[in-house]
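Task card 7
Instruction: Convert sequence to structure tokens.
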Amino acid sequence: MIFKGLSAFPITPADEEGHVDVKDLVALIRRLKNARVDSIGLLGSTGSYPYLSRDERRRAIEATIDEVSGAVPVIVGIGALRTSEVIRLGQDAKEAGADAALLAPVSYTPLTEEEVFVHYKTIASEVGLPICIYNNPTTTRFTFSADLIARLSEVPNIRAIKNPTSDALTAAHELPALRAKVADGFSIGYSGDWNATEAMIAGGTTWYSVAGGLFPSECLRIVRAIQNGQADEARMLDARLQPLWKLFMEHGSLRVVYAAVNLLGLSQKQPPRPILPLSSTVQNQVLDVLRTLDLN
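Output:
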């Protein structure tokens, strides 16, 4: 099963024109491969997929697939405005060797549930990869209802969902009812690093992690503790990372991770404009957290 455990989401280092720095990307991917994460989430929101052209996305996928050489499943973000473009991006990902696709309902005009259903069903039939629904209302302004998730879970090739966690208790309340609605074997996972531990303890199958894309060992310890039934240990490990979660919540995980990548000397690339790097004051706060938590 691809959609399980820790799915680690790295940034995609690129220059101001959106040309991917393959060398820097491969170095980040190698960290994840060596840590033995359960999957790599390439070109997710942390990977800045909307800011990259089709050709640059393809370069990133090919470089990643070459580096992992089958050692780690790769889930590739294929979101785009037009259904036809998503299909082409999905076919590119499959041809390059991706194991699965991550799809958000990207749109300028707000979508209806029927439009989203037809969009996903069409793509699932045309791309031929297992698909994870990306429920990301903060950026798409569309929230998947439990009924729509259940309906989509019956569509061939739609195998999982990446849900947000608005607070630490949401998953515990909502997950049992959702699991009762969806098809057997459908994976229910969560993002939002600061609440993901409780979501996984509540029964989430996958942690789709921004922090895992840079600090895989720390996040894997939490996941493995949960998988081994050691909830107290997982909570202790999660509590240790609270200074990092605080930075994520205050400044946005994307900006913080770019700053951390720079400070660790792994790349000097900056977030895609118009997103600006963190101020020097906040970067110093990031550095203090890296040193205090011994994150490297």
